Here is the input.
Amino acid sequence: MLYLAPMEDVTDPAFRMLCKRFGADRVYTEFVNADALVRDVNAATRKLTISDAERPVAIQIYGRDADSMAEAARIVEQARPDFIDINFGCPVKKVAGKGAGAGLLRDVPRMLDITRAVVNAVSIPVTAKTRLGWDADHLIIVDLAEALQDCGIRELAIHGRTRAQMYTGEADWTLIGAVKNNPRMHIPIIGNGDVTTPQRAKECFDRYGVDAIMIGRATFGCPWIFSDIKSYLTGSPIHRFTDSPIPRTMQWCVSILKEHVERSIEWIGDERKGIVHSRRHFANSPVFKGLYDFKQTRIALLRAETKDEVFSIMDDIVSRWSPAYNENLNNR
Here is the structure.
């Protein structure tokens, strides 16, 4: 099973639908502030927009107060997601520094109170996502996983870093494996962190025995990574040029990036904002990795503010670089 990780400003409906199309077995919304939901803030309630086409889908919430988290969960349940996920892993200062997200790794009793409150407030399955611990001196995940299970969560996703690491260094999957292989654990365990290639995905499944893998930053500009991984897991050989079992042409990849831009504009309802929102994808897609003398073109992509301008630059990329790119595809 392959899941799209919940990511703020990334996993909106436009991107979720693309990832679903390419084989994501479950998608997650951006995280939603529980207090904002209770206050009926439009920016928060808008994140509850889901569709049947993307199921199974989880709506993720975060907060530091058990009562507001329970009330938020009841509000979320009315949107009819398949799961409610609790964010105990966000490391950014504005979240963790206020005692929510990964900040609760320093207050486990409060974390467990929140978990019980959310589980008891709704009738749909509740899951959670967290990290290994606050820092290298407090790697608490093995005991914490048992405690969260006892509170009634149905699945646990673990990012293989501490809060102190943020997104630096390498994800440590050994403790994820320790949780999965703990005989006292009976809920599914989802591994997350640094899965960027089909080969790494297979290694994590084989070595650590996780029930699913959650993929985050590797999806940027590459929603087709899910189909790549699934093809490799079924025995397809890796293409030596694209590091993928499916030798996709540059033209095809660019067409998907264009589709994402159009979907983002439609979702946000503003051309410029939709382009800004999707820049991290189209300007840093792995399909452009290693292209000779690409720096100025990437800068131009990052500065473009209209769809016509973005698409014109993309068309120029295809005309300039695709002949060599496609030749490499044919030299398997």
